Write a sequence for this structure.
C-alpha cells in the first residue's frame, strides 16, 4: 500500500513540475480538464492530485499528459517513449554523418593512390 501512495505522490509531483515549467496555473489545467475533457475537476482536485492525496484514473492521466504535451510514462517518471525515439534518431543521424565522413575520406585516400 505504501508503494501505491508513493506512486501517487511521484505522479502528483511530476504533474506539478511539468505544469509549473510550462507556466500553467492550477486553475487553467483544472478548467481544461473540466471543459475540454469533461472531468469534474476543480482547482482543489488538482491540488490534491499534485499532493498525492488523490490518485488519478488512467483516463485522467492520459488527458493530463496530453494537456502537458507528454505521455503517461513520463508522468510515472519512466523514460518517455517519445524521448527514446528522439535519442535513437539523433544517434542514427550521428552515425550517418560519421559514415559520410569515412566514405569521403576513403575516396580521398583512393584518389591519392
Amino acid at each position: 500500500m505504501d508503494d501505491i501512495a508513493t506512486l501517487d505522490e511521484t505522479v502528483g509531483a511530476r504533474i506539478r513540475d511539468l505544469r509549473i515549467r510550462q507556466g500553467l496555473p492550477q486553475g487553467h489545467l483544472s478548467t481544461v480538464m473540466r471543459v475540454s475533457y469533461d472531468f469534474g475537476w476543480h482547482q482543489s482536485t488538482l491540488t490534491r492530485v499534485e499532493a498525492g492525496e488523490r490518485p488519478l484514473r488512467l483516463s485522467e492521466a492520459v488527458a493530463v499528459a496530453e494537456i502537458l504535451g507528454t505521455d503517461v510514462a513520463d508522468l510515472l517518471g519512466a523514460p518517455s517513449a517519445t524521448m527514446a525515439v528522439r535519442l535513437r534518431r539523433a544517434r542514427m543521424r550521428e552515425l550517418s554523418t560519421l559514415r559520410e565522413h569515412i566514405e569521403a575520406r576513403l575516396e580521398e585516400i583512393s584518389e591519392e593512390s
About this structure: The two ends are 72 Å apart (CA to CA). Residues 7 and 76 are 8 Å apart (CA to CA). Helices lie at 2-21, 26-35, 43-50, 58-67, 72-75, 81-112.
